[in-house]
Amino acid sequence: xxxxxxxxxxxxxxxxxxxxxxxxxxxxxxxxxxxxxxxxxxxxxxxxxxxxxxxxxxxxxxxxxxxxxxxxxxxxxxxxxxxxxxxxxxxxxxxxxxxxxxxxxxxxxxxxxxxxxxxxxxxxxxxxxxxxxxxxxxxxxxxxxxxxxxxxxxxxxxxxxxxxxxxxxxxxxxxxxxxxxxxxxxxxxxxxxxxxxxxxxxxxxxxxxxxxxxxxxxxxxxxxxxxxxxxxxxxxxxxxxxxxxxxxxxxxxxxxxxxxxxxxxxxxxxxxxxxxxxxxxxxxxxxxxxxxxxxxxxxxxxxxxxxxxxxxxxxxxxxxxxxxxxxxxxxxxxxxxxxxxxxxxxxxxxxxxxxxxxxxxxxxxxxxxxxxxxxxxxxxxxxxxxxxxxxxxxxxxxxxxxxxxxxxxxxxxxxxxxxxxxxxxxxxxxxxxxxxxxxxxxxxxxxxxxxxxxxxxxxxxxxxxxxxxxxxxxxxxxxxxxxxxxxxxxxxxxxxxxxxxxxxxxxxxxxxxxxxxxxxxxxxxxxxxxxxxxxxxxxxxxxxxxxxxxxxxxxxxxxxxxxxxxxxxxxxxxxxxxxxxxxxxxxxxxxxxxxxxxxxxxxxxxxxxx
Length: 610
Hints:
This protein is of the alpha/beta class. Residues 339-344, 412-423 and 436-446 have low confidence and may be disordered. The strands form 4 sheets. Strands 1-6-5-4-2-3 form a 6-stranded mixed beta sheet, with helices on both faces. Strands 7-16-11-14 form a 4-stranded antiparallel beta sheet, with no helix packed on it. A 4-stranded antiparallel beta sheet has the order 10-15-12-13. The longest helix has 25 residues, at 308-332. The chain contains 17 helices and 16 strands. The radius of gyration is 26 Å and the shape is globular. Strand 8 (470-475) and strand 9 form a beta hairpin. It has helices at residues 16-26, 42-60, 98-101, 107-111, 120-123, 125-137, 154-162, 181-184, 187-195, 200-217, 245-248, 250-262, 269-279, 308-332, 351-357, 393-413, 447-457, and strands at 34-36, 90-96, 142-148, 175-179, 230-235, 265-268, 428-431, 470-475, 478-483, 490-495, 513-520, 530-537, 550-558, 567-574, 584-592, 598-604.
């Protein structure tokens, strides 16, 4: 309870009693929140090693910590002379939508006139998780980085992971938490499913599978890396994007099948409170208050953002499951044989070796007469084949072996003298609300930084403030680029920029894909909103001022949908591999409607080894 006091924002612990009530209600139910635990303990072993080194360091060097002060969280002492040698914290990356941003979390603070200053992101469960764990251990053991983008879903996160577009501070996270479950049930995902002629559950399964496979590959770069993140899916969705009870659980059913297949952790806030919410859909401690706006009115309206109670409890749910994984790992650790990296497939080694570490196992008589053949072999070490509807028992073993061989060959090809592995995967990358991307010049948080990055690649009027036809706009905390001069507003970007000093590698294509993130919204301003996106190229080393650009692809995108929400869609255009692309232009023109909003643009290599 004390560790849940949000310091320094709430030094008087104004929500002391409310938090106590929550603790009373949920404590005995926390075991219900665990849906699946990791199949491999390798990641957890790595996390414990990292955490133990930092914990031990602080015990041996207490002067590295600032003297505890009332109302202040544990933190490093800035006067400590050896800060650079402090072992790193456990890095936790949380990716999610508006719930992770804390939307509606402060409503109770305002309604009750609580005298505390609390920023939206500080109220959210992601921020509370880091504060809770550090206060629990009385030292800063973990560092939580949040990528929260309202109106996005798991597909966005999968793209960021695929291209390794993560903040530099957490480029190799130890724990990755997917917090998109509510956003994955949005109209956006439903429309994507309809466009792909599939179900909502199948669409969510595809997005989450891409997320998981791209997340695991973060630890497989190079030939000496021995790194594997712990991946957790966090389900916080209880409604009411859909009103039918079975429909609200379609996403969780899809993720559960994946977690059993791949062996990643799945946990659920929704399972903790589901019967309380169903028993009284007017309660507001755990579900959104806005479902009913008038007393006695049984008309339910759309609202997916719970209040403060959910954020406090959600942090507990994640922390409980992390600690539960640790205790489970410790209980099975004797079964993990030394030198084999804590994989459960070590059980398929010699029985005598296992018995050496677990002497309580019975000794073998040495009589094999009644030991039948057909003992299972150790599963392949690589990722299994994708879980498609056509994947069958007859073919999965061979496909898994082939998949592992392919992954091994790709890993080997990145070793040695091949510097192409370290090339920038995305020569142009900007995504709204991703604070720092791991390439030079990518914008931070202010409009000036955004402009400097885009203007460096702009051709023509975008770099001239007086005649700029597209500019950055911020509405409801959603920063994007909008047309300023109505129909005909054009923006052209050149990659690499004309001013770039980076030499062009004539043996590789600059990019093989262009992905645009764009908003779809509603209302009169957005009716008929349409842009034309043209991708052009020309031979390498040819002057940028020669106008023989060849159109590689041209698409039209609509910024309107018949839903009272503003959501971010993505469109990826794959470019032909028939020839090398070393100069590229992306031209975007408003061809209909009053406005449009671009939320991000990536020019990337989909796979450096293809």
